[in-house]
Amino acid sequence: LQNYNVQYSIGHGGFGNVYKAEHRFTGQKVAIKFIEKKKIQNHSGMMKRVLQEVAIHSRLKHPSILEVYNYFEDAHYIYLILELCPHGDLNSKLKTLSCGFPEHEVRSYMQQIVDGIVYLQKHRILHRDLTLSNILISRHGTVKIADFGLATQLQDVNEKHFTMCGTPNYISPEVASRTSHGLESDVWSVGCMFYAMLTGKPPFDGEGVKETLERIKSGEYCMPDHVSSHAKHLIKSLLQMKPEDRLKLER
């Protein structure tokens, strides 16, 4: 850590903070994620989850996925040296707008996100927390999939999981119903992100978590008139209730 000039906090979570930093010798600007060991050791299974996050994320190399440059630890923290995305995330950017991004901008974001998800699927990685808050904007204006804290490595493309996890507005019906789910649940999340980028909020957004989950399980949502017919068709193709009916992302 002494090789870095740690500057200020740019994000925080339940188990640590993310800081902007600069390498003292190369001048490279990075983000450093500090994961506090004391906090994760007090939560059952968290150390295993963090180590799994590091193992999965550190080996991913794709233009649409946030890069891990290095990782190490000391007695108090696990450190992830990450690519710096100085322009925040898509959710924060969306909140500055009155009703969503213009379609040409969404088209560009979607192409990059889908390319990244296809890469993950080829490597049998289920992200499980695809939200606009986890899509970061690089210094070049491109987008990067981040936060692999809930990601899991599947042994087979058809492997299923039963753990209910993720952000309520973006989880699939099978996750909300606590039934088996696989790679197709990430496709549903892509559909939710697509809808949110165009309209300003996720398709099943309710007054609270319970209402949101009920809406997801019913599969009913309203489509604003300003969304183009092509976009409506694509959203419908992604937000299919049966996982096997969802659009295949790979071209």
From TrEMBL:
Spell out the InterPro entries in the cross-references: Kinase-like_dom_sf (IPR011009), Prot_kinase_dom (IPR000719), Protein_kinase_ATP_BS (IPR017441), Tyr_kinase_AS (IPR008266)
Residue stretches spanning the membrane? none
Q: Which GO terms describe its molecular function?
A: ATP binding; protein serine/threonine kinase activity
The answer to whether keyword Hydrolase applies is no
Coiled-coil ranges (or none):
none
Q: Which UniProt keywords apply?
A: ATP-binding, Kinase, Nucleotide-binding, Serine/threonine-protein kinase, Transferase
Q: Which domain of life is it from?
A: Eukaryota
- Per UniProt, residues of the Protein kinase domain are 4-251
The keyword Electron transport belongs to this UniProt entry's keyword annotation: no
Q: What residues bind ATP, as annotated?
A: 33
**Protein name (record):** Protein kinase domain-containing protein
> What organism does the record attribute this protein to?
Helobdella robusta (Californian leech)
The taxonomic lineage of its organism, from the top, reads:
Eukaryota, Metazoa, Spiralia, Lophotrochozoa, Annelida
